[in-house]
Amino acid sequence: MPNRPRTAFLRATCHAAVVTLAASACAPDEDETEAPTDDRASAAVVDVIARDLTLVAPDSIAPGWTTFRFTNTSPMIHFAVVERMPDGIGLAEQQAEVAPVFQDGLDLLAAGEVDAAMATFGNLPPWFGEIVFMGGPGLTSPGRTSEATVHLEPGRYLLECYVKTDGVFHSYNPEEGADGMVHEFVVAGEASSAPEPEATVQLTVSSEGGLTMQGGLTPGAHTIGVDFEDQVVHENFVGHDVHVVRLDPEADLDRLEAWMDWTRPEGLQSPAPLEFLGGTNEMPAGTTAYFTVSFEPGDYAWIAEVPGASGKGMLVPFAVPEG
Predict the structure, then answer these.
(1) Contact in structure between 299 and 195 (CB atoms under 8 Å)
(2) What local confidence, expressed as pLDDT, does residue 255 receive?
């Protein structure tokens, strides 16, 4: 992630967690969603399970193209952002030095004390600006499974979810000795032989051009490739990403747009106003992520987690026709 001076705001307190993106059908029963018992996930597919405010995932995986399969058994909406940590930094430092700062700042924002909030965010550790955000499953509604694929280099990583419930980030837990919705894992060993996915539809996202799509959508499963043409820090201190949401006949796009801005009291607050099917969290400029979605005929939208998404071309409704 790029340096974010005093506005280093968001992506720490909740960044990450439950690997997700691209939607599938309802999740299996809990007794069928046990995480792998082996430390090393096989076949370059990593199962991540969200159970209430807990992430269950392997502790070690191989480098290379990796598909995060996220099953949300929780009654709350979640996502999982993948964060590559600086050398010598891991879960303990994130929970002690970052998560409390973000929660304190969020509380001040909710009270309307913007200047005090900014001063609080200035207490983030210097290493925070060295975190590299590497995608991961996007917003996934309760009972759904989504998949996202990224290329991982060796190193130490976190999975994190910073959706809010009752004004508290899921990645923050004030209880002593308890962690928030964050999971640490190591990428090491022999690289997997998994190939780069082949997209059926390609998206490009940029600060200048917004979200553009190449290819058509039909009912059924699609692999969505997302090219990050650039990456910038938006007014809510996060980079752009891509999520897919199903629109019902009463869908209020203004409300949806406002909900995607975490700095608002209602922003990223569970429950979500509509059903989310996955996507990809932010990635560095010049990289590509993939996610899988199974579409039924109906109305949908691509949307980024940025304020004023429609004015930036990052809220794009589309339809999947019959047949």
Answers:
(1) no
(2) 97
Name residue, tokens 């290819």: 215
> Residue type for 87, please?
D
Q: Which helix (H) or strand (E) holds 46?
A: strand 45-51
CA distance 10 to 99: 10
CA–CA dist 102, 106 (Å, integer): 6
Q: How high is the pLDDT of residue 26?
A: 34
pTM: 0.86
Q: From CA 182, how far away is CA 82, in angstroms rounded?
A: 10
Starting at the edge strand that comes first in sequence, how are the strands of the sheet with 81-84 ordered? 60-61, 182-187, 155-160, 81-84, 132-133
**Planar angle of CA 82, 314, 273, nearest 5 degrees:** 75
Strand spans (E) along 161-306: 164-165, 168-169, 182-187, 201-206, 210-214, 220-228, 242-247, 275-280, 288-295, 298-303
Rounded to whole angstroms, the Cα distance separating 222 from 199 reads: 8
